[in-house]
Design brief:
The structure holds 2 protein chains of 2 kinds.
Chain A (H helix, E strand, L loop, with lengths): L8 H9 L13 H19 L4 E2 L2 H15 L1 H4 L3 E5 L6 E3 L4 E5 H6 L3 H16 L2 H22 L1 H36 L7 H18 L20 H15 L7 H20 L4 H11 L6 H14 L2 H16 L6 H12 L3 H14 L6 H8 L2
Parallel strand pairs in A: 2-4
Antiparallel strand pairs in A: 1-2, 3-4
Chain B lengths: L1 H19 L2 E3 L5 E2 L6 E2 L5 E3 L8 E5 L7 E8 L27 H14 L4 E11 L2 E11 L6 E11 L2 E10 L3 H14 L4
Classes of the chains: A mainly alpha, B alpha+beta.
Chain lengths: 380, 195
């Protein structure tokens, strides 16, 4: 029997409060569909293992894996292989064979271990409930139904195709909701507080608004009702039911923000660089503001300066020069801050001060890959 | 039935010119590229691809654009992207600015590639002053990997801002074997560039 396409509000509360489903270690796929999906997932994992996009730092991998294990429990997490991918987008994926991918854009956007645990728990929920198998069967069933209807009764086809396709997407949204609430149940039983799940979606909405505003697009009102073809519930819906379920769970916990910042510190500079080069001024400035909630560190100031210099309006160049200077005054370690300061000043027609900063850059890094070019700019 | 066959043949014929847009570039002759006044004189034979990356650009190859590709950008004006947008609403490309410094050109290419190809594995390796098309410009090298092929490619480019317009030529090929093989031929073409 298939689960209902969308879960009712009563069902939400039941799932959030219910004990975790029984777990089977070393599960082997059964049936032709599931074995076929696992075979494809195994092939995808073989490619993932050799991918140049995977971040292989042992300390980072162990840390993120530790968060997953603390969230879903040691026995469950042993059945997953985790790959951290350098992709500057908020996302994580779960394959039916237990391969989980965590994208660097997600690591950049969560503020503590508990928020990351909430997202990883959601992905693990898809795995534990074998959602991809059900989704595959449902899609095939839909294809079969529509093909036969089109052959046997074209008039009936035109009237039922829309509702059948709509039912498929609604089913997908139901799975997402189920995984969200199962993820919340993991959090509630972990050392992390269940209340950490909702703020992730709230900040994503705010970032999307900032991106739209930065691109001079109309900022759309966030809605509860998902679009007809939406595979996921809206962020507003997710934030709302997760907040309600967390209030019911009412579990204390420790979000571990300081530990998260310390563990990610060696990587944040690279992740920020990837983000800044996406030409998303509004969203990135919002994100930097969120990361600087406890104060602007020299790294964050440098990133903000780069962002403003890249947009390059005359007023941006003035702001960029200020941010570079603040980063330098705050003890920013890299000579590239002097480079950015110099180039910002040059573009603002402050030639002498600009060249002075570029000379400091060259003195500090005479073997820089662009030393010849910068040298030509300052007339050396 | 005959009518259906006729319609199919007509459909195939209308589809053909896209393929037939590729043409041979003869060696030794001066040729205008990228629908602009930028002229180059290749010493060897190349194939010009019918598909252009953007309005003011054009691509050449020897063995196919995945194995070796030269692209010419012929005077991109202020406010325009380097090449055609891939997803203007969600992933808009950065635009050329008339007040860009020469050092901003490699950064523009890097950001455009990262967005258009969906890859963070794109980096500028070296930047140095060089003349291009008779003007003071820049020569830079880079490397990138597309997520769909995972082949590491190397690139070399020359560029200059001339009269507020961006003129550039790039050469890209897989790091393994191909890049080194045709680099000299590219440099000869880049050296021959003139307005």
């Amino acid at each position: 029997m298939r689960r209902p396409a969308a879960l009712s509000g009563i069902a939400f509360a039941l799932i959030a409060a219910a004990p975790l489903p029984p777990y089977t270690p070393a599960y082997e796929p059964t049936g032709v569909d599931e074995r076929g999906m696992w075979m494809q997932a195994d092939e995808a994992e073989r490619q993932m293992r050799d991918s140049p996009f995977v971040l292989r730092d042992p300390a980072l991998n162990a840390y993120v894996r530790g968060i997953l294990c603390r969230t879903v429990g040691q026995d469950r997490c042993q059945s997953t292989r985790l790959y951290i991918q350098r992709l500057p987008i908020f996302n994580a994926t779960m394959y039916p064979n237990g391969m989980m991918t965590v994208w660097s854009g997600l690591l950049l956007r969560v503020r503590n271990e508990a928020e990351l645990g909430a997202v990883l728990g959601h992905e693990f929920g898809h795995f534990e409930q074998r959602h991809s198998l059900e989704g595959f069967k449902r899609a095939r069933g839909l294809g079969d139904l529509l093909t036969w209807t089109a052959l046997l009764s074209p008039t009936l086809y035109s009237s039922m195709a829309t509702s059948a396709i709509g039912g498929f997407y609604s089913f997908s949204r139901g799975q997402e909701t189920e995984a969200d609430l199962l993820g919340l149940a993991y959090l509630a039983q972990s050392p992390y507080p269940a209340a950490s799940a909702a703020p992730v979606w709230e900040r994503l909405m705010a970032e999307a608004d900032a991106t739209a505003a930065g691109r001079k697009r109309k900022v759309k009102a966030h809605r509860y009702s998902a679009g007809f073809f939406a595979s996921h519930p809206t962020e507003l819906t997710r934030a709302t039911y997760l907040r309600d379920a967390a209030a019911k769970a009412n579990d204390p916990g420790y979000p571990a923000a300081a530990a998260y910042r310390a563990a990610l510190a060696p990587f944040i500079g690279d992740f920020l660089t990837d983000q800044i080069k996406l030409n998303d001024f509004g969203g990135t400035d919002y994100l930097l503001g969120q990361l600087a909630a406890d104060g602007w560190t020299p790294d964050l100031l440098y990133a903000r300066a780069e962002l403003y210099r890249q947009r390059g309006n005359p007023r941006d160049l003035v702001s960029a020069a200020q941010f570079y200077q603040q980063a330098i005054d705050g003890g920013f370690a890299g000579a590239e801050a002097q480079r950015g300061l110099g180039l910002s000043l040059l573009r603002s027609q402050q030639l002498d001060a600009g060249k002075e900063a570029l000379r400091r850059y060259l003195d500090a890094t005479p073997a820089a890959p662009d030393a010849a070019m910068i040298g030509a700019l300052v007339g050396q | 039935m005959v009518r259906i066959m006729g319609a199919m043949i007509a459909l195939l014929m209308t589809a053909l010119p896209v393929q037939a847009g590729n043409s041979l570039i003869a060696p030794g002759a001066k040729i205008l590229v990228a629908k602009s006044t930028l002229a180059v004189t290749p010493a060897s034979e190349w194939n010009k691809l019918g598909a252009r990356p953007g309005r003011n650009s054009e691509s050449w190859t020897l063995d196919g654009d995945g194995l070796n590709e030269i692209t010419f950008y012929g005077g991109i004006p202020d406010g325009r992207t380097l090449f055609r947008e891939v997803d203007k609403r969600n992933r808009p490309l950065p635009k050329v600015s008339g007040t860009m410094l020469i050092t901003d050109i490699p950064a523009l290419l890097e950001s455009s590639y990262r967005i258009a190809l969906n890859t963070p594995l794109m980096s500028i390796e070296s930047v140095e002053p060089a003349r291009f098309a008779g003007a003071a410009g820049v020569r830079f090298t880079y490397s990138y990997t597309r997520p769909d092929s995972e082949v590491r490619r190397l690139g070399e480019a020359r560029a200059a801002m001339i009269g507020g317009l961006l003129y550039m030529t790039t050469y890209e090929a897989p790091a393994l074997y191909y890049f080194a093989r045709d680099l000299t031929a590219f440099r000869q073409i880049a050296d021959s560039a003139a307005l």
